[in-house]
Amino acid sequence: MASSEKCLGKGSTPPGPVSNGRIRLYSMRFCPFAQRTRLVLHAKGIKHDTININLKDKPDWFLEKNPMGLVPVLETPAGEVIYESPITCDYLDDVYTDKKLIPADPFERAQQKMLLENFSKVTPYFYKIPMGRRSGEDISKLEEELKEKLNQLNEKLAGKKTKFFAGDAITMIDYMIWPWFERMESLGLKHCMAGSPELKKWTEHMLGDPTIKATMVDSETYKGFYKTYTEGKPDYDYGL
């Protein structure tokens, strides 16, 4: 099997070996964590096949590859399996050395890892706020907390006075945090960036990147998927 845009679920036929000269990505079209890996694959021009997984009804053969049942997962022609989004992205940058995305300087690398660790505290808000809004909860405190965390990112950019987080060229950290900003509008969170002008500029610069343009999903499709998700019946093939 080369690629499967439609997701594979329980009872599906396991894919055969990975083709030589390629790498396989197990993904899900709307997963921001898997999108990180898709961005790196595209940015580096790596030949790959993508197989999408039904995360609600996972195939047994997929759980054998990653018992945690999460995407993204990479598989090599040698049958090596790598998972967890930061680890898959680091692996791709180490193995495919053209167009390096991770800084060579150890301190720069450490700064990116620290920023990524801090950002991991931000991502839950992208789920909590829309779910709270849907169930009629008071989400004002959560929104204020998100605004504050986004403002901290804004200050990082303001201090650097550069287009991106590590200079005037995109590096790994930009791709690692982008997927959540791509979803801002469809999740009804764009207003939370109102007090973060540098972050707004960053999103505009990111939207000019060919890799971002090539891998984006439009807001209406995201909205349609998230509606099925919040109703507890996620349609991973939405829009196909």
From TrEMBL:
Gene Ontology biological process: glutathione metabolic process
An annotated Gene Ontology molecular function: glutathione dehydrogenase (ascorbate) activity
Role description: Exhibits glutathione-dependent thiol transferase activity. Has high dehydroascorbate reductase activity and may contribute to the recycling of ascorbic acid. Participates in the biotransformation of inorganic arsenic and reduces monomethylarsonic acid (MMA).
Domain GST N-terminal: 21-100
PANTHER family named among the record's database cross-references: GLUTATHIONE S-TRANSFERASE OMEGA (PTHR43968:SF6), PTHR43968
Family, similarity comment: Belongs to the GST superfamily. Omega family.
Keyword line: Coiled coil, Oxidoreductase, Transferase
Coiled coil residues, start to end: 136-163
Any one GO CC term of the record: cytoplasm
Identification of the protein by name: Glutathione S-transferase omega
Provenance organism: Aldrovandia affinis
